[in-house]
């Protein structure tokens, strides 16, 4: 019998962070398996666009295998990628205000269509689909993961990368937290819609912001509207848009998975655009809740926040970079028990600190902007500054 290489890593969840970690382990030649609850890569819509920026981009370039090609192939504006990624802020009560950020020499931004990003991250990764983690056992010798279909897998390290939304099924997190519920619905109501635009309507939206624009409300309303392009048709003539209306709303904290607040109230107002809404959750763990061992978390499973400022996905992928280095070091040093724990503690502490910083700037944006007339808007790691008007023809 051939001996299993050490460590053999099990990754639960083939989302952004799980796949990024799998790529890093593939590049480093670390043994791994990755499991996904969805029955196939196309079982579920992968959501809209996501902005990647800052040191993360350099980290991805360095850590991803070269054979998957450059990240630019995920650009949401293709084939109109002569337009740089751009986010613009407006204020419903300040007609002349137009401030924002561009992808430029002062900070690279890759706004990725999420489906393309997942496809890029999935290249050459043998994801095992239809494997919903149901239970985790740690015998002391190895970790055994039991799947809902009755099968199991064993390894030396288990990484929980199952995101926030599988609330009831976050067995990996439950294994660590002994059943504690760490998910808190945030006091933010949300409404979601999608629309396809062509001709002058499409051009006008691009003029308002190549990638996305946000309209901030006043102190009374405490709301914001986010309108963004997810992708462009191959002929460059149709823009696939989505929009999110967010407002400060204490009642949203009463949301449950079975009775989400948005569904019973606000979605009735805009019947035409009725879509499944979003209950925004916060997860913020402290070190005592995440013992540094052979089971570790990353991404939304470890920390969850609002989409404001585009921090969450960047955090999730930064975790993958950091954990990739940690696991490679565990392999190189053949680290076990206390040696493994001391490497994991470094990852955990850096990850929790980075996430806490992102949570602290992301969650309060709408209320803070409404209360503070001098509040500075940031996105993609940059301060929003005045931008000239644009004229765009399709
Ligand atoms: C509306 C919206 C807009 C957003 N916009 C941005 C943005 O612009 N910028 C940004 O940085 N972030 C954004 N985010 C956040 C970003 O999407 C997440 O932070 C990111 O996807 C987290 O990655 P992840 O790998 O932790 O989890 P996910 O990408 O959610 O992946 C988790 C995977 O685990 C699988 N899974 C779940 N349970 C199990 C189980 N029991 N067994 C096996 N597999 C399981 C799921 O099917 C899924 O494939 C946004 C989020 C929302 C909701």
From TrEMBL:
The name this protein goes by in its record: Uncharacterized protein
Species per Swiss-Prot/TrEMBL record: Nemania bipapillata
């Amino acid at each position: 019998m051939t001996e299993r290489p050490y460590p053999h890593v099990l990754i639960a969840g083939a989302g952004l962070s799980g796949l990024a970690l799998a790529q890093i382990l593939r590049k480093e030649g670390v043994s791994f398996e990755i499991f996904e609850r969805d029955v196939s890569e196309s079982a579920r819509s992968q959501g809209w666009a996501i902005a990647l920026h800052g040191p993360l981009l350099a980290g991805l370039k360095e850590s991803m295998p070269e054979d998957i090609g450059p990240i630019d192939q995920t650009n949401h504006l293709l084939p109109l990628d002569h337009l740089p990624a751009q986010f613009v802020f407006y204020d419903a009560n300040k007609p002349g205000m137009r401030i924002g950020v561009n992808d430029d020499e002062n900070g690279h931004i890759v706004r990725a269509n999420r489906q393309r990003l997942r496809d890029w991250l999935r290249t050459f990764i043998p994801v095992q689909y239809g494997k919903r983690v149901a239970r985790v056992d740690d015998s002391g010798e190895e970790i055994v993961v039991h799947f809902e279909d009755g099968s199991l897998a064993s390894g030396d390290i288990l990484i929980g990368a199952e995101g926030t939304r599988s609330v009831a099924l976050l067995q990996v997190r439950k294994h660590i937290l002994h059943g504690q519920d760490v998910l808190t619905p945030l006091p933010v109501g949300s409404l979601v819609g999608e629309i396809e635009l062509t001709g002058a309507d499409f051009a006008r939206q691009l003029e308002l912001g190549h990638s996305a624009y946000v309209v901030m409300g006043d102190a009374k309303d405490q709301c914001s509207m986010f309108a963004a392009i997810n992708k462009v048709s191959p002929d460059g003539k149709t823009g696939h848009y989505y929009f999110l209306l967010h407002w400060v709303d204490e009642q949203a904290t009463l949301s449950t998975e079975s009775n989400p607040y948005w569904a019973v109230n606000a979605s009735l107002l805009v019947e035409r655009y009725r879509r499944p809404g979003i209950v925004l959750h916060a997860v913020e763990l402290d070190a005592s809740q995440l013992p540094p061992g052979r089971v570790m978390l990353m991404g939304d499973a470890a920390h969850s926040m609002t989409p404001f400022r585009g921090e969450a996905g960047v955090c999730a992928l930064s975790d993958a970079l950091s954990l990739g280095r940690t696991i490679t070091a565990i392999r190189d040093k053949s680290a076990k028990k206390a040696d493994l724990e001391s490497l994991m503690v470094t990852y955990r502490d850096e990850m929790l600190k980075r996430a806490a910083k992102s949570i602290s700037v992301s969650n309060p944006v709408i209320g803070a902007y409404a209360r503070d007339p001098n509040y500075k808007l940031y996105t993609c790691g940059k301060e929003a500054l005045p931008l000239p008007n644009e004229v765009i023809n399709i």
